[in-house]
Predict the structure.
Amino acid sequence: MEDDPLATLAELASTDPVAESLDLNPDSPPGNWPVRTVRSLERAMVKGALVERLKIATFGGELAVESLLNFVYQPRSQPLEPTFNENFLLLDLANSKVLPSALRSLRGRHPGIFIEDLVARPHDFIDTNRSIATLDLSGNSFADEDLPNVLKLVQLCQPSIVKLRSNRFGYGRCNPMIVAWLRKTVELPCVVFVDIVGEMFTGVDWAPAYEDWPATLWTKLVFIRLQWLEGHDWKLVHICPSNFTALAQETHRLYFLHKSANPMFTLLRLQEVLLLATPEWRAASNATAIASLQGLI
């Protein structure tokens, strides 16, 4: 195909996930060499040339070449679309469907939607008018600086459950400002549970940042994995202050009631689970969010 005659080799490399690894200097050769024509090489021709040049004569050697070509000739990723599960009213924005802000500074094309773009133009990507039981933002490599946009997205979607597990929150020293942003999300009246299991800011060294959290918030925050709950000694030190340990323990029992490590809730199932809560938990819980479930079912 014909390319822009003013394009340079460095510019061309920056648009390709394989070629950009060359890290060409745009101001010196060969990065500043002009590119006038780009030709697509057939896979079979490239394989033949490699086999001949490297004098590969074994089946294992050919497999190695095939693996290399699978990487080079992999289909170019397209922007991922958010999906909505009607049965669970689940807005699935997990597993790199939404990208962290830090990734924008890297060269190349990135499949997915940057979180700040999603927040700025939500109606271009999602229907914020539909009822959402669960907003799943897990597995997106979000970092601390993405929490303000996470808050905005939760405010837009008004879900009952927010999943933030498998991200990169809390890497580094304890920073009360990071927990303050998390608190703003947990405090939202619509929210019943916020799942942050496995995140770094659930470590005991972050406990001082949670000391001023009131009882209501400990009826919402899920911070221990199901696999670790069996036999867990709640008298041990963790991020929850000792005077609210019973509330946190009940929160985890309810959230993992059906013994699923990553539970899914219909609104009806969520309501049924909450009806099994202890009187103490219900007295301290977010009555506004729980009452609003009646209007959604």
Summary: Residues 59-72 form the longest helix (14 residues). The chain has twelve helices and eight strands. The chain has a mean pLDDT of 83.
